[in-house]
Amino acid sequence: MSIDDAARCPVAHGGAGSPAPGTAAATGATGAPRRARGDLSRRPDDRPYTGPAKAVDAAGASADTRPHTLATNTSSLLGAALNLTAQLDVREALRHFVDRAARLTGARYAALGVLDNRGETTAFVQVGMTEAEQEILGHPPRGNGVLGAIPVDGPLLLEDLTEHPDFGGFPEGHPPMHSFLGVPVRVQEKVYGRLYLAEKDGGFTQRDAEDMMSLAEAAAVAVENARLYTEARNRERWIAVSQDITTTLLEGTEEEEALEMIAARLREVAEADTALIVLPSVGTSWVCEIADGYRAGQLVGLVFPPDGRAMTVLKEGTGMIVDSLTRLRTLRLNELAHFGPALYAPMMLRGEGRGVILLLRRVGEPEFDRSDLMMAESVAGQAALALELAAARHAQDVASLLDERARIARDLHDLAIQQLFATGMQLASARTAMAERGEHALANLLEESLTSVDESVKQIRAIVHSLREPDAAVVLVERLRREASLARTSLGFAPSLIIEVDGTPITDDQAQADLITQIDDRVGADIADDVVAVVREGMVNAAKHAKASSVRAHVSVLGSGFTGRIVVDVTDDGLGVPPSLSRRSGLGNLAARARRHGGTFSIGRTESGTGSQVSWQVPLT
C-alpha cells in the first residue's frame, strides 16, 4: 500500500505540511508530533493516548452505535493476540499481524512498515494489493507524508485520507483509498514500525482503533520474543563458528587458507553479503588481504587509510556498527560506497590489534545489531589467538624440520663420509699391493672402485650442503637477528639480542663490517649452524615453559683457533626451570651439539635466583 511520498508522488517533494525527514513524526522518536487538521486523534486536553479506553473517533466522545463487527469480538482479538505471541520468527509474526489486522477490521488493504534508526522504512509487509499492482508502484512507501503523521503514542483515524493536509496525491497505478487507520507498533518504548489500514466499508471506528492498538501491543511482544529467540539461535551459530575456526587452525591449516575460511564462515553466520579481513602489510599500511562474497575481487588489496574507521577500531580495541556507509559524509574508500550496513570487529590479542574483520551488507538490507557486534568481537579475538597459535606451531614445525635436516647432514658427514674414507684407504692399499704383484687387471678394477668412492663422497657432500638451512650463506649475525625476530611471535614480545667479539658489541653493521665477517671466519659454518639452533631452542624454551616477560640472548666470540671459544647464554625472568623438564626434550639436542664440538651445556637458575639460564659454549676448532 503506497499512500505517502513515493518517488513519483507530489508529497515526496514537500507537500503542504509534510514533515521533514528526521522530525519526530518521521523518525518515530519520542515526543508529540505536530498534529494537522483532520487528525482525529486530537483530544481536548491534548494529552497522550493512554490506552484502548480513550475515544479517538470523529465525535471525540460518542460511542459507536453501529452493530459490532468481528473486530468487536473479544475472543477473536484475544485469539489473534495469542497467535501472534506464539510466533518465534519475526517475518512470520509480522505477516500474521498484518493479516489478522485486515481480517479483524474488515480492511481491504493492510500493511506494516518497519522503521530503522532514522525513521525510514527498511521492511514492508502488505496484504490486499496484487503482484501486478506492486510491480507498477515499484518501491514500497518510505513512511513520510500521511504515514509519517501517525502519532508515536496513539492512532491516526481518518474518514478520508485525501483530505489530510499532508496528502499529496497517489502515485500512478495506485488504487484509490479513502478511509484510513494508522497505528504505531512500539517495542521497548521505541517505534518499531507503523500499521496502515485502508478501505473499510463504512469507515473505521473507535473500536477498530482500540483493537488495533491492543493487537499492536501483542505484535510488539511477538517481535521482542522473536528477537530474543533469534538472538539465542544466532549466538549458538556464532559459538559453533568460533569453535570450528579454532579447531581448524590448531589442526595445522595454512594461515591463508584459514583466513579464507574465517571470512567465509563469518559472512555466513552474520548473514552479511561481504566479509573482509584487514591485516598489516608493508611498512605501516593495512590492506584487505582476504575478501569473501559480493565484489570480493574488487576489494582484495584495498589499502585502508590510517585515520579511517577500521584503524580507529584497531587503535581503540572496540568494535563499531555503521547503519549505512552510503549515508556517511566522509567515506574515504569509494569501493565501500556499494554497501549499506557495516560492522567493524578488531582482532585483539593481549591488548594489541592484529587485524580488523569488516562485515558488509548491501544497501537497503537490515542493520547489524549489538548482539552481532558482541559475538563478532569475541570470534575476532579467538581468531587472532588461533592465528598466533598456528603461526607458533608453524615456526616450531619449521624449527624441528631444520633440526632434523641438520642431524641428517651431520650423520652423513660424520658417519657415511668417514666410512667411505676408510673404505677408500683400504681399496688404495689393495690396489698398491696388486700392482706390486703384477696383477694389473685387478689393480685397474680397484682404481675404478676408488673413483666411485670419490664420486660418492662428492655426492654426499652435495646432499649435506643442500640439507643445510636455505639462508646458511647469510652471515651469522644476520641469522641470529632473524631468530630473535621470529621468536617474537611465540614470546609475545621482542627478545633482547647481544652479540660481542672479544668484548666489543656489534652495534653498527656498516662501521663494523670487518668484525662481522671475522665472526664467520672464526666460528665456521658447522658451529654457526649449532649456535643458531641453540639461540632458537633457548627462546622456544622460554616461551613454552618460563612464562617470562623478558628474554635475553648473549652470544660472545672470544679468541680464535684452538684457544678460542664461543659462548651462548639465553636468560629469562620467568618461573625458572620446571622440575618436569626432561633432557629428552629439545634441550637434550643442545647438549648433544655441545658434546660433538667438545664443549659444555648447562641449564639452571640465573645468578639472581629468578628465571632460568641456558649456557652453551664450545671451542672454535
Keywords for this entry:
transferase; elongated; Two-component system sensor histidine kinase; 621 residues; two-component regulatory system; Sensor_HK_TwoCompSys; alpha+beta; disordered N terminus; kinase activity
Gist of the model:
The protein contains 15 helices and 17 strands.
Structural write-up:
By secondary structure, the protein is of the alpha+beta class. It is built from 15 helices and 17 strands. Strands 8-7-6-11-10-9 form a six-stranded antiparallel β-sheet. The longest helix is centred in the middle third of the chain and has 68 residues. It starts with 23 loop residues before the first helix and ends with a strand. The N terminus is likely disordered.
| Percent helix | 40-55%
Strands ordered across the widest β-sheet: 8-7-6-11-10-9
**Secondary structure: number of strands:** 17
Question: What amount of the residues lies in strands?
Answer: 15-25%
**Which regions are unreliable across 5 or more consecutive residues at pLDDT < 50?**
1-74, 580-585
- Global outline: elongated
Mean pLDDT across residues: 75
Radius of gyration: 40 Å
InterPro entries: GAF, GAF-like_dom_sf, HATPase_C_sf, HATPase_dom, Sensor_HK_TwoCompSys, Sig_transdc_His_kin_sub3_dim/P
Keywords: Kinase, Transferase, Two-component regulatory system
Region (Disordered): 1-68, 601-621
Protein name: Two-component system sensor histidine kinase
